[in-house]
Amino acid sequence: MKITISFFNSLRYYFLIIAILHRAGSLNPVSAVCERSFVVGNKVYSFSLVSPLPNFPHGVLSEDGFYKVAVNKTVLWFQLCDGMIFNHDPPRCVDCLDCGGASHCGMECSALMAKNIGGYDVCTTIGKVTSTTTNIIDNQNPHKGVIVKMTSSGSEHNCSLSVSVICDSNRVLGPHSLEKLGTCDYAAVLQHPSGCATINVHGKGWGWFGTLMIIVLCLFGGYLLAGAVYRHFFLGFHGLDMIPNLDFWTRLPHRTQSFFASLVRKFRGPTEGHRNSYSPVNF
């Protein structure tokens, strides 16, 4: 009986841990997509749209849980880098099956559009959280910001929403307008401090000489290690005697000094002391 109770307790804890890990893994599923770095010339432009800022603790994420744009009889809800959350004013439209259904409409996608057709608001999912990509707006002017694009594949047509996050370090502005690019492709503009990049100078690396030195040092280290292992296990040496060619390495500083001294004498010529140390010999 005790074994059975212990087994069920362990099983309960196991499923609890699995649920916690699953929940943790589902948080911000595209946060990596919204943290991108682009190399332009010798500079690295890093964008982190979800990183907290002094006045924006959630980064580019709307604190309301969504952004909303209304143009004529069309309403667009979207969230950047995450799914939408509606604590108030949820979408009320038909055909919301692929974005949460009637009871949770808008909660299972990142962009939802409602159009008034025949007196009814009809929903169309135009962006999914898992299909979000981030790219730089202008390669010639990386300071401008990034484009966050989300897509959705439907039974009738494919849709997309591209939001240009323009760098503005002082304020948040928009989105106020909605541009139609195709049959079901739309674009909006948002000015936000999160659209400003962190710039780092991209070094040119070690170069061929540095790479050569690393290779030489690695070969030298491998030579010492292999020689020490061989002399210890096969020849029975211990301590400093394990170092291969120990006599050569101990005499190397003296030989180097002698070489440079002879080289200096060669270029400077014989010194006065050397000339006076010899006396003439008469035959």
UniProtKB/TrEMBL annotation:
One Pfam family recorded for the sequence: ATG27
Organism: Salix koriyanagi
Location of this chain's protein in the cell: Membrane
UniProt entry keywords in alphabetical sequence: Membrane, Signal, Transmembrane, Transmembrane helix
Domain of life: Eukaryota
Gene Ontology, cellular component aspect: Golgi membrane
PANTHER family reported in the protein's UniProt record: MANNOSE 6-PHOSPHATE RECEPTOR-LIKE PROTEIN 1, MANNOSE-6-PHOSPHATE RECEPTOR FAMILY MEMBER
Protein name: Autophagy-related protein 27
UniProt entry tagged with the keyword Phosphoprotein: no
Main location per the UniProt record: membrane
Keyword Transmembrane: yes
Signal peptide location: 1-26
Listed transmembrane segments: 206-230
Topology of the protein relative to the lipid bilayer: Single-pass membrane protein
Lineage, highest ranks first: Eukaryota, Viridiplantae, Streptophyta, Embryophyta, Tracheophyta
InterPro entries recorded: Autophagy-rel_prot_27
